[in-house]
Amino acid sequence: MNNVNQFQDNINSEDPFIKELYSDLNERINAYEREDAVKVEKMRWKDAVGSIFFMLLIIVYVVYVLV
Questions:
Q1: Which of 7, 28, 36, 67 has the fewest CB atoms within 10 Å around its CB?
Q2: Whole-angstrom Cα distance, residue 23 to residue 33?
Q3: Distance in angstroms (rounded) separating the CA atoms of residues 21 and 12
Q4: How far apart are CA 50 and CA 59, in angstroms?
Q5: Which stretches in the chain have pLDDT values below 50?
Q6: What DSSP line would sit under 23-64, residue for residue?
């Protein structure tokens, strides 16, 4: 209960930065609870190919420098 009171106190704060921060957070939480938020898709193989390629390129370069 204390966390809820603290959250509400921060929404009603006199400091505009704190008030905006907690108001935005409250809106995001409410949207998530209403399931208006965009569903997160699983990462696909084609999304990781570029990162894996650069990682292998760096590994090959480091091995080449060390040998």
A1: 67
A2: 15
A3: 11
A4: 14
A5: none
A6: HHHHHHHHHHHTT-SPPPPPPPHHHHHHHHHHHHHHHHHHHH
